[in-house]
Amino acid sequence: MSLDDCQKSENASKVLAQVRQLIEAGGLDAEGKLPTERELAAKLNVGRRALRRALDALEAEGLIWRRQGKGTFVGQPPDPAGQLAAQISGEVDPLSVMEARLCVEPELAALCAERATPQDVARMRRLMEHTLNARDAEAAELWDGSLHRLIARVAGNPILLTAFALVDEVRSNQQWQDERDRARSPDLQAHYGRQHTAIVDAIAARDAKAARRAMRQHLRHLAGALKKLRREGAL
C-alpha cells in the first residue's frame, strides 16, 4: 500500500470516528435525522469524499439509513406498515403496544439466535452500549429502538417482521414516548441494560430458548414499570 493510500485510510478512519461521536452525543431531532453532508463536512471540518466513505461504512453496519430527497437517519429504515400504524395509533395505548410486543418479539429473538452472524452480534453489542451511554431519554429511546429493530430484521421472517414494524410504528407516537420517558429512570435504565445483555448473550450463544425467555422477561418488566406508574398516578 502506498503512503497516499495509508493516509487516505487513516483519514477515513478518523472521519468515521468523528461521525460516530456525533451520533452518540445525541441532540438529533425526533426522527434521528443527521445534518446534510455539506453541513456535516463543515461541522467536522472534513472533506465531503471522506465523509461519504464514513457514511457508507455506517450504512453497511446498519447504524444509519438514507432516503433520496429526505436525508440520512440513525437506525433502521421504517417499514411500509407505517401507513396502517398511522391509522390505528390514536386508538392504541402503550399497554396495548406492550401486549403486542410480548406476542411478537420473543419469537423474533428466538429466530435471531438461530440466524445471527458474529457480525450481527457485534452490531447488537454496539447498539446496546449506545443505549446505556445515552445522555438523554430521547437518545436512549432511539438506540433502544435500533437494537430491537436489528434483532427483528436478523430474525429473517418477513411476516413477523411486518407485524413488528406495525407495532414499532405505533410506539413512535407521542403518548408512547411520553410514558416511556417517565418509565426510564437511571435505575431502570441500568436494569434494562442488563436485560439487553442477557438477550444478546443468548443470541450470541445461539440459544433460542434463552433468547426467547430473556426478551419476554425484558418486555414484561417494561410493561410492569408502565403499569406501576399508572397506578401511582404519574401517567
TrEMBL record:
Pfam families, per database record: FCD (PF07729), GntR (PF00392)
Keyword Lipoprotein carried by entry: no
Segment forming the signal sequence: none
Keyword Transmembrane helix assigned: no
Residue ranges of domain HTH gntR-type in the record: 9-77
Keyword entries, A-Z: DNA-binding, Transcription, Transcription regulation
Any one Gene Ontology molecular-function term assigned to this protein's record: DNA-binding transcription factor activity
InterPro entries given in the database record: GntR_C, TF_FadR/GntR_C, Tscrpt_reg_HTH_GntR, WH-like_DNA-bd_sf, WH_DNA-bd_sf
PANTHER family documented for this protein: TRANSCRIPTIONAL REGULATOR, GNTR FAMILY (PTHR43537), UXU OPERON TRANSCRIPTIONAL REGULATOR (PTHR43537:SF5)
The name this protein goes by in its record: Transcriptional regulator, GntR family
Organism encoding this protein: Roseovarius lutimaris
